[in-house]
Amino acid sequence: MSLVLLRCWGVRVRSGWNARDGAPIPASVRLQAAPCGQPPHPSPPTWQHGGVTPATHSTLFPQVPDAADAVLEGLDPEQREVATALHGPVCVLAGAGTGKTRAITHRIAYGVRAGILQPSSVLAVTFTNRAAGEMRGRLRQLGASGVQARTFHSAALRQLQYFWPKAVGGSLPRLVDRKIQLVADAAAACHVRLDRGELRDVTAEIEWSKVTQTVPADYAAAAAKAGRDAPRHPAEIAQLYAAYEDLKRDRAVIDFEDVLLLTVAILQDRHDIAEEVRAQYQHFVVDEYQDVSPLQQRLLELWLGERDNLCVVGDASQTIYSFTGASPDHLLDFRTRHPGATVVKLVRDYRSSPQVVHLANGLLAQARGRAAEHRLELISQRAPGPDPVYSEYTDEPAEAEGAARRVRDLIASGVPAAEIAILFRTNSQSEIYEQALADAGVPYQLRGAERFFDRPEVRKAGIALRGAARFGGNDALLDDTVDLPSQVRAVLSGEGWTSQPPAGSGAVRERWESLAALVHLAQDFAAAKPDATLGDLVAELDERAGAQHAPPVQGVTLASLHSAKGLEWDVVLLVGVAEGMMPITYAKTDEQIEEERRLLYVGVTRAREHLSVSWALSRSPGGRPGRRPSRFLDGLRPGSGNAAPRGGTVGTGGVVRGTTGGVEDVVRRVNRKPARCRVCGRTLTDAGEMKLMRCEDCPSDMDEGLYQRLRDWRAAQAERSGQPDFCVFTDKTLMAIAEAVPATPAELAGIPGVLTRKLKRFGTDVLAICAGQDVEGVEDEH
Asked: Between the CA of residue 195 and those of 143, 188, 198, 686, what are the distances in Å?
């Protein structure tokens, strides 16, 4: 039998067909080289809903169940059915907040603890490192350590690294983290000029092509059939795709899609290797199955072989990644492929209040298409909460300020900052909310930032704790400590932790938040295990780092709707929910519009209790108020019909007409006119130009000396508050001040970026500097 080798390594290639479903496997990735039926566990007869353990808000350190049957305690009847269906194909249709992760982790743990499943024979796959880490953490807490819980790419990469020398020879080529530079080089080789946006879009098209197993020559036809809106002419993208593949071959590198493609190729053509993998893994669990791509589905089929010990979990109404090649069809067709499958529906929502669930169900009730035909109507299991609040603002800056003010008030009322999230459609919306939160003195964290255990301060803290644990009583830091939490506080005080947080929301605050998370973790650990030592805590941290099971960090979360998938908060603010943004402008087809609806559904179902939905009538202050609330809200928000009303109600559940704060700020904003360049008179739309009050290309009459004095003063203010410089004023705002040289508070207030709060806090200093007076923080020589 011939072996498989990849063409790009200079070896012969043969084309082939997927014998199972007729789909072609690209020639560029086909390798060729030379020489026990466990019965359902009955529900307790005394079961009633009130006895079900909540699906969320579990303690950080629960007691490990002492027996297999104890693993099933606290599950509702449907979750218990999932947990005890350990053989044959199982399909779990799980709505948002219904405890799907809980059900499948208890299923694995019950099988392991009952001796039905061997931990090393189970492979659980999902789509993000965070989800895989959470799954490993939960399994460890249930006494089922040793189970492999990984992403598709991670599992494939391990197999590829292990089998590559045997299948191909030599070491696996280098894996590139980011392909965008390679795409840029391929464009240059083809003499094609791409701007930054086109470069990103072409890269996305190449990724889609590879996960749908489309070769360059077939791209145009495949893109047309899929209804993709190509960023360039399809023939040109096909040319760039081919050049990109050639460039990878020449440089002997592979990308993340190649990891899956190569693994598929090896398993498909080396039956001995495929059998070795199948001997290792005999039971598979796939989370978020609605997001599986054709390539991932093919890999899963090769892992399975002729067996059917497969459990899949998903919700077609949460399919939001079709642009990457994901399709809910694999989930919806599961019973067709597996006629004898056990199908369990989870609809008891333990996450969200009835008011939030009512809105979520209302969104899906208006949906169309195949996914909508299989929607799950959620039933809230929580006590009633407040109605969703709808807010309309004059412009986007006002909306951001309103959101920051609401967040500040919630924190003041006792809501932890870590239990609040601001969710938006695109990452480009983040900056204005970062600035608004910084202006309000609210700490925040960006979703998708550096992993917790990879942060420098966390690594240093781990070293310090490990050293203190090793030296024990010989460490002077521990002389006055009486318990584990006080020991941790003493050690981390040397790393920058203090009992009170620093002011502001800059890097100093972020470092403090990381250390504070370790302090809180130590307190929870000691409460769960009173006899635990510092060494025990260090071991716990090591296990958590290995599983990427991070403790919560205080700080409001800023995230896109896509990156918020799988997360939840007590309070969620959905911002920018207006036509053109939700649905996004480039969503043209019915399928694309429905995916936008599902994306909003995902955002709504992230909220446990408090939900705010807001939109702005214009992008910029003084702009034409031509926007309207998203069509998805029609008939759902009070007072709305087929057209958004211009009147409105104020109060819980109604539309709150947003303002930005005090009376003077309202007056100032109402009286604003469209921003125009003070040099040429052109209407300004770019945020940076609006701050400068002139076009970037128009000549500047900035007072360089004044600008430098303002920068020196800003640096002193930032250092004093522990914030980054831009949280005081951005460079553009300082340039605008140095150009305008305001003499009165009114003139200063007229400069974009100088909002009411900053005017009150910094106005006196700034006007004094503009007048040439000495202010603390400004060097005399300037």
From this structure: 52, 12, 5, 18
